[in-house]
């Protein structure tokens, strides 16, 4: 007789345990390990005992038509989805509370509905009347979206099964509750079960499902990581509270490039698309100031110019401050170390503040030169040439490495009125016409060229 196997799961990190414990070994949290329903056991045990069905195998050369896509007409949203919404796909949208996820998805659902899709919006957080009020405020009252307010997973699935929509938005996965899992809504077990059921439904019925997910303090989607693996596309909706810019970023996409961004602006009448983000991110740039460097970056498939701002001030602290917003702080420490070791420019005893204007996040190593430029310019109190954009990766030896897609970066810079580019010597770049290049081999050369002897 098969022995029933009981599993224990940590509700904080999702780790599986063989037996109950007061403290989870994996994450160290107390009182988070709960018993889960036993896994159903098939007849017999082991692989040989029960016979499965043979799966038909095919070669790699088989002609598969590309997935048909539905476009909403919101160009920023369509691009982040990889060129439109794929039927039967599952999309997870994460973001801080109040950042505008519900607004984005209501507008998105309305746009898809106007484009002819049968769209359903199910809110587990707000009553239908609330959602309707918001829709009226956003001028979407005439869009043929159907609203529901429900948290019971079984009722939602029954509704979707009857309605057979093309698109269903579920806001949010943490509010859903399945009666087959004995745990509170929002717990690991519930989130995993709900996501699994909805993703399975999407594949079976060809309904595109968009799930909203809350984000924990450290910026990950709350609940088990496994939900991110279950879905086809994971999008993050980011932005600074004080800024009106919002960035929708794809971190995983089975149907398109990852790292693609869509830029929106939160206005009194909802989110409006920003077609030219470079102009927006540079719009706050005033007179040339020390500590400002314009980085010609690539986000996904398109070039985006951003302003890296640095402030360097004498510190009263034993270990000076390194405050970095929108950049990787490990990367910044490396650049500070290279400046000190290779160029003899110390930052000891100085507080360093670095920021990317407009609430943008830059993760490309190509931003190294712009970061170094901003730091040096702030330290020397000497502005960089205002007509110049910078890009290039800095190696630990202080040498500058070429980066990908230089032409696209230069084209965007020229379009925005820049006439000079500071770039690695080894960079092969065409399309420099109209741009005066300043090629530098290493960081020491850069300091000499731009700031005199340094
Ligand atoms: P919301 O979509 O409810 O955020 P989330 O679902 O991510 O929690 O957005 C709430 C915020 O957006 C709220 O602080 C007000 C602001 N907002 C506007 O500025 N303009 C608008 O038209 C709307 C609908 C919201
Ligand atoms: Mg919401």
UniProtKB/TrEMBL annotation:
For this protein, the record's CDD domains field holds: RadA_SMS_N (cd01121)
Q: Name one GO biological process term.
A: recombinational repair
Short motif (RadA KNRFG motif): ranges: 252-256
Q: Which UniProt keywords apply?
A: ATP-binding, DNA damage, DNA repair, DNA-binding, Hydrolase, Metal-binding, Nucleotide-binding, Stress response, Zinc, Zinc-finger
Source superkingdom: Bacteria
**From the UniProt record, which GO molecular function terms apply?**
ATP binding; ATP-dependent DNA damage sensor activity; damaged DNA binding; hydrolase activity; zinc ion binding
Concerning InterPro entries, the annotation shows: AAA+_ATPase, DNA_repair_RadA, P-loop_NTPase, RecA_ATP-bd, Ribosomal_Su5_D2-typ_SF, Ribsml_uS5_D2-typ_fold_subgr, Rubredoxin_2
Family designation = Belongs to the RecA family. RadA subfamily.
What does the protein in this record do? Plays a role in repairing double-strand DNA breaks, probably involving stabilizing or processing branched DNA or blocked replication forks. DNA-dependent ATPase involved in processing of recombination intermediates, plays a role in repairing DNA breaks. Stimulates the branch migration of RecA-mediated strand transfer reactions, allowing the 3' invading strand to extend heteroduplex DNA faster. Binds ssDNA in the presence of ADP but not other nucleotides, has ATPase activity that is stimulated by ssDNA and various branched DNA structures, but inhibited by SSB. Does not have RecA's homology-searching function.
NCBIfam families registered for this protein in UniProt? sms (TIGR00416)
In Swiss-Prot or TrEMBL terms, this protein is called DNA repair protein RadA
This chain's source organism reads: Paracoccus siganidrum
């Amino acid at each position: 007789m098969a022995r029933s196997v009981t599993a224990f799961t940590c509700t904080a990190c999702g780790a599986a345990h063989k037996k109950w414990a007061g403290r989870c070994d994996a994450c160290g949290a107390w009182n988070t390990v709960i018993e889960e329903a036993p896994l159903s056991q098939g007849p017999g045990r082991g692989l040989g005992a029960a016979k499965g069905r043979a799966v038909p195998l095919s070669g790699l050369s088989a002609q598969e038509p590309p997935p048909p896509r539905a476009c909403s007409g919101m160009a920023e949203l369509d691009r982040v989805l990889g060129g439109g919404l794929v039927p039967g796909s599952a999309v997870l949208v994460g973001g801080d509370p109040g950042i505008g996820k519900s607004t984005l998805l209501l507008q998105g659902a309305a746009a898809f509905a106007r484009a002819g899709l049968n769209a359903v919006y199910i809110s587990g957080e707000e009553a239908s009347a609330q959602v309707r009020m918001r829709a009226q405020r956003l001028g979407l009252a005439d869009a043929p979206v159907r609203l529901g307010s429900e948290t019971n997973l079984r009722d939602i699935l029954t509704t979707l099964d009857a309605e057979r929509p093309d698109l269903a938005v579920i806001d949010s996965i943490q509010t859903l509750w399945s009666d087959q899992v004995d745990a509170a809504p929002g717990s690991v077990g519930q989130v995993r079960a709900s996501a699994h059921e909805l993703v399975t439904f999407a594949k079976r019925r060809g309904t595109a499902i968009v799930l909203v997910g809350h984000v924990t303090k450290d910026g990950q989607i709350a609940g088990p990581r496994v939900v991110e693996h279950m879905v086809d596309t994971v999008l993050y909706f980011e932005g600074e509270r004080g800024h009106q810019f919002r960035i929708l970023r794809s971190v995983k996409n089975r149907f398109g490039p990852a790292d693609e961004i869509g830029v929106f602006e939160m206005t009194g009448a909802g989110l409006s698309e920003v077609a030219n983000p470079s102009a927006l991110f540079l719009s706050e740039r005033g007179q040339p100031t020390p500590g400002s460097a314009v980085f010609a970056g690539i986000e996904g498939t398109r070039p985006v110019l951003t302003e890296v701002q640095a402030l360097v001030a004498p510190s009263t602290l034993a270990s000076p401050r390194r405050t970095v917003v929108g950049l990787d702080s490990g990367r910044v420490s490396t650049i500070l170390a290279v400046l000190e070791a290779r160029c003899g420019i110390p930052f000891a005893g100085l507080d360093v503040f670095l920021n990317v204007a407009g609430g943008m996040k830059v993760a490309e190593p190509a931003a190294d030169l712009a970061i170094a430029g901003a730091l040096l310019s702030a330290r020397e109190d000497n502005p960089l040439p205002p007509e110049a954009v910078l890009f290039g990766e800095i190696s630990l030896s202080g040498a500058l490495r070429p980066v990908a897609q230089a032409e696209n970066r230069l084209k965007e810079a020229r379009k925005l009125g820049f006439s000079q580019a500071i770039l690695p010597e080894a960079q092969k770049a065409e399309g420099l016409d109209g741009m005066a290049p300043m090629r530098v081999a290493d960081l020491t050369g850069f300091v000499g060229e731009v700031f005199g002897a340094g």
